[in-house]
Design brief:
This protein is α/β, with parallel strands linked by helices. The protein is 33% helix and 23% strand. α1 (6-26) crosses α5 (124-142) and α10 runs antiparallel to α11 (399-412).
Length: 442
């Protein structure tokens, strides 16, 4: 995604405050008030999608859906589930709403746990709300987020701005593919109030930290926010002891315009029900009872440029009962168990390890650079000496790009492996039917 312009930052400052007041108020609603709000937003989004997005009109008509019979969230199961292939096949002309084109939206590319390349578009207003929802998470995790707090953000892509006007909410970016030493130096120097990063990147950086480094990082640190990968509560508890602050998990999705759920300091894993509707279904796509593990189906309630309604995200979750409360007082429903993507480490003959987070970004940055040439990708370590980058090429792929990808991956893996790019017709799937992007056959 591109950087915000000066004008967009000014708009974010003005409109963002109004959105913040609304989102903050939503956290204190009674259950009946929240359900009413969800019903109103859901019906509005469904009708908008049907009337303005060719993909949804065709899908709903083919299933015999009478859009006027969708009265609220209770009717959500009447609508068909949207698959990744639907988004891939219909982007952009049939998935963007009327009035939106690639010239007036921001776009993101994601591979997700499926290994398939999905492109998502956001309007400027959606981007503003996405940023504000992130600040709401920080506010929850830290019990307040003053505008002078600094965040250090270790991620694949650069955040679309380094601060709001007048230097408010400053942010330091560290590239995920930076070496452990470079990451350590930048992190120690930044002295953040909040640190946001992959769990595996935190593990990597910790291997290079001395006690003096940890003490320096703890100068201002209030919270560590881990995201985009699986981590165990036991791991987060251990990291919390080392750094002396809460280490909390966030679950997000590019397709769903950012964050879906996040942990509060009381341990509750809250779904942001006012901006996303979450369902859990069985192998037959039937909604299942609370406390049963099933597949996550989600609906976003504020991306008007490219609506996402009943989308199969691909992760497995379990919902706690609706009436189970959290010590923080929020009424938003909680996730009881979560099983996202699980990827392998790569090991060298000398014993060096490459974490899943690092490997994902090795592949993901190729996707960002060569997105028009790749339909899907997967990194596979076959032996201690060999790594394959399997990809499904598009018609725009060339032999030179194939060579360039191999050379770039070889460099990012520090010439520890013989790297081969292979063109394939399909990507291997796991027994659960998922396409893990990082696989070790050792």
């Amino acid at each position: 995604m591109r950087d915000f312009t000066t004008e967009e930052l000014e708009k974010l400052s003005i409109d963002g405050y109004k959105i913040w007041k609304e989102l903050n108020h939503n956290q204190s609603l009674r259950r009946d008030e929240l359900d009413k709000l969800k019903d109103e937003k859901f019906v509005k989004m469904v009708r908008h999608a049907y009337n303005n997005v060719p993909m949804y009109r065709a899908k709903y008509d083919s299933h015999g859906i009478n859009i006027n019979q969708i009265k609220g969230v209770k009717d959500i199961a009447k609508l068909p589930i949207i698959e990744k292939d639907d988004l891939i096949d219909n982007f952009p002309h049939n998935s963007l709403a009327e009035g939106y084109t690639l010239d007036n939206v921001q776009t993101a590319i994601t591979g997700g746990s499926s290994g398939k390349v999905v492109r998502v578009a956001y309007s400027d207003d959606t981007m503003i709300e996405r940023v504000v929802t992130a600040y709401r998470i920080y506010h929850m995790m830290m019990d307040g987020y003053p505008d002078y707090y600094r965040q250090t953000y270790v991620y694949t892509g650069v955040y679309p701005f380094s601060s709001l006007p007048e230097g408010r909410f400053p942010l330091t970016h560290i590239w995920t593919l930076d070496s452990v030493e470079d990451s350590r130096e930048k992190l120690v120097a930044s002295k953040p109030h909040m640190l946001t990063l992959y769990p595996s990147k935190l593990k990597d950086i910790m291997t290079g930290l001395s006690q003096d480094d940890i003490d320096a990082i703890r100068t201002n640190l209030k919270c560590i926010n881990v995201k985009s990968e699986m981590s165990l509560q036991q791991e987060r508890d251990q990291w919390s002891k080392i750094f002396g602050v809460p280490v909390l998990d966030e679950y997000g999705s590019e397709e769903l315009a950012g964050t879906v759920a996040a942990q509060c300091p009381h341990g509750g894993y809250h779904i942001w029900e006012d901006i996303n509707i979450v369902e859990v279904v069985d192998e037959h796509d039937q909604v299942i009872e609370d406390e049963s593990l099933g597949e996550l189906i989600a609906t976003n309630l504020y991306n008007w440029a490219m609506p996402i309604i009943r989308y199969r995200q691909g992760d497995m979750i379990q919902l706690k009962p609706e009436d189970e409360t959290c010590g923080c007082g929020r009424i938003f429903r909680q996730i009881g168990d979560f099983k996202g993507r699980s990827n392998s480490k790569f090991k060298t003959r000398e014993g060096k390890e490459y974490s899943p987070g690092y490997l994902l970004d090795v592949g993901y940055t190729r996707l960002m650079k060569y997105g028009e040439h790749l339909a899907s990708w997967q990194l596979i370590q076959d032996t201690l000496d060999n790594v394959y980058f399997d990809c499904i090429p598009t018609s725009k792929m060339t032999e030179q790009i194939k060579v360039d990808i191999a050379n770039e991956i070889d460099s990012l893996l520090h010439n520890n492996f013989d790297v081969t790019v292979r063109f394939v017709d399909d990507i291997k799937i796991t027994p659960r039917g998922k396409r893990n992007q990082i696989i070790s056959n050792l």
